[in-house]
Amino acid sequence: MAAKKKRSAKQQPLPELPVQPLEQDDDLMNDLLAQLESRDQTVKEQSAQLLNDMDLNSKADAIEKTNPKQDAKARFKARQARKAALLAKSYGPDDPENQERLQREAKEEEESIRKTCKSLGLEIHEANGHCLFSAIADQLSLLHVVPPAQATYANVRLTAANYIHSHRDDFLPFLPSEIGEDGHGAQEPGLMGDAEFESYCNSVRDTAMWGGEPEIVALSKALNLPIHVVQGSTPPIVTHHPTGQETPPTSTQPAIKISYHRRMYGLGEHYNSLRPVAPN
């Protein structure tokens, strides 16, 4: 059925862009994504432009802001919107206005993150490769949780993968399936099956797969340490505590401190380690 829908979408004329919430834009977004596969370059560019005009990243921000508990359906919709926005940008023409907007947003994000870091007496330490896991490894060495030789992204990946694997029921609601109900054109997020869950854990452990909130939660619990994430949006600091409690960012309790960058880096989402500002 999905294949038939995709072929039909390619044959239809480009729809006019409605002004409405993302929940009502799902069908349009999926049709435009299908048209990105057209052999007609003009159709590709027009579809990409319509997706860009939908301002999907802002709508994803709104979903996350209005769903503080982040149920699986809300996370699914926000993630799909961000994927669509990223894909549309890669297909679209080099629009100077769009590039200017992206540069402006990146600059605003950087200024916001650095302002928060300054208030906490922290500075950004670049994490190169396996960014989330490298950033947390740097923090573990900084906090003397493990010897420097053991503070590697590979060991952090292993810790996250093992914890998620051993707490399957706790993490499944946060890991919507990439197939079945969660496939192209799906209206509801499905949960991972056994094989997909095993594959996910193996990927966290053995590949360069990007880490995100599920891995941060797992590492906070596995390491029994709060993790504070500085970001350029609201709230400026997101705290994860192994007990699930809120931890004030100014607490004297040892905590892993990292930054989350959504727009500063051209390759997409990125994490860095936050170290105390070195004395002059």
From TrEMBL:
Residues 1-30, 54-73 are annotated as: Disordered. Residues 11-22 have a biased composition (Low complexity). It holds the Pfam family OTU. Transmembrane segments: none annotated. Residues 56-73 have a biased composition (Basic and acidic residues). GO terms for biological process: protein deubiquitination. One of its GO terms (molecular function) is cysteine-type deubiquitinase activity. Residues 120-277 form the OTU domain. InterPro entries: OTU_dom, Papain-like_cys_pep_sf, Peptidase_C85-like. This is OTU domain-containing protein. It comes from Panaeolus cyanescens.
